[in-house]
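User: Modeling request: complex.
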Amino acid sequence: MTSEEKHEALFAKWISPKDPEGNDLKFQSPQAEKAFKERITRIKDAIQMKKLPDRVPVFVAPSFFPAYYAGITPQEAMYDYDKCSMAFKKFIMDFEPDGNLGAYVPGPGKFFEILDYKLYSWPGHGVAPEQSYQCNEGEYMTADEYDKLIEDPSNYFTHSYLPRVFGKLDGFQMLPTLTGILEMYGVAMNFIPFGLPPVQATYKALFDAGAEALKWMGAMGAFNGEITAAGYPIIAAGYTKAPFDVVGDTLRGTRGLMVDMYRQPDKLLEALDRLTPIMIKMGVDTAMMAGHPIIFMPLHKGADGFLSDEQFKKFYWPTFRKVMMGLIAEGVVPMPAMEGHWTTRLEIMSDLPKGKTLWMVDQSDIAKAKKTIGKVGCLFGNVPSDLLVVGTPQQVKDYVKNLIDTCAKGGGYIVSNGAFFDQAKPENVHAMVDAAREYGVY
Amino acid sequence: MAKDLCKTLADLKEDEALAIVEERLKAGGDPMGILNDASRAMEIVGTRFSKSEYFIPDLVYSGEILKKINEMVKPKLTTEGGAKKGGKVIIGTVAGDIHDIGKDIVVFMLDVSGFDVIDLGVDVPAQKFIDKIKETSAPVIGLSGFLTLAYDSMKQTIEAIKTAGLRDKTKVMIGGGQMSDEIKKYTGADAYGKDAVVAVSLARKWAGAK
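Assistant: Request completed. Predicted assembly structure:
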């Protein structure tokens, strides 16, 4: 199949969902089925930019907002999967967005506990029960470990990185390199670590963690089936990342990454190259498994001010673009989220084929985004978090109307909030959705 | 004569800058003189940043080089460095929020601009701000936060400062990813600064530095 055919095939799968047995999913009603297909067609037309959708689609993309809205704490959402599903279902049914993010945001609290996850603090573990989880910045990969990462990324992750971010995976440090298992002679030597107590304790934790992950996924699967049957599509199948963010977010950390650009730029560039096919595969595999064309890419360390123009062109953009092109070649639609401000990057990032990408815009200059990336890719977002919290419904409506006037001409725009939000006045979120329906008809 | 430390450091030439420091120390040079040159270099870095000639990585890297210079010079120091010329600024990420990248950049810029910065770290309860204001009489308070959840936390912190009777003695600035002038009004702060450069000019206005 050509990449164009693969692209169409993924959209065809998305619009014809299956139940867990592999049969056509039964919708709640013929109206729900009609609404589901209309929503996906609307989103597809906006992305592909070949013809105008019937109206501007609308997404609502929250972080923990559905939990607060339903009156539960983030801690409850993370530890009680039924409550979590209930909250996100209420959110979707009440706001009726054309696209939503499912109920994956909270994640399974107990799972993180079982493995003693250190990369994040979460409600009850480092932050209060009524707060969302937050990342603990650190140098989880040290400055002198680039060669190890480059030489064998999965071996590096297993032996060095994972034991640092999960306390209970300590035993992985003692694991043999399995490529030493070749002949009868000496083969048993390789297995000795599996007999040692620390390694066995790690495997015991893994079995428990796996069971908990399955339990959570069961709840998520049921949730997805239910909201799909009610006519509401989930926007993305999963995620991958720009290689520069892989290194900067959770391996070297922001400070480590920035210093590496001066002290060891060649090693950094080599690592970015090494991570590129891995990030492509991560996105493509997820899309294929889910039968869904869209893969989310949260963008962080390339924002305005985080790099000079030269640094952005040298370190951030080339491998980020390669990952997107790798996804596009397999028919997948990259959905990069430009968190914060990216106005100075828009022009550079417009060098992409038309109708293959979907960009979340937070606080970047939206008019400029339309004139640059907006010429080749679909934009969504830009309704600000602060407006949703402290504004009035009329202010939100006016903002959305202005967005539609600025961006919707010729298609390729979806109304949405710009950053994943925890808090908002519900009436303001309603105003955003209503305004899209009211002003967005083509 | 060794090359100019101030210029070398301001241009972020790490190896050269460290070599100059080593040479000067070996030759029995005055450690305070070295630190003064380094401090002038940091001012230049700050100025270049405010003119958008330098970006965040340049600030971070200059800070890393400075750290190394401090380590080399410290054993030779006989007295503590002189007091800061600028006013006092208390800064911290508000309760419930543990993000610090933005805050650290503001701390850096205030520091190189001559302020005496009291950094309370992250997830700082309102009471800790109040205690520090009482202890230091700092006229400028910086509240940092990355999340929308920080809106209420900032509001509560400012209200607590008011209840403690300290509000009219202090000026409060807020900053962070999802902050804005609207949130300034919501929290009752005196100003919102979109970046570290604005934070420095606000602090100058309120506390007066050199």
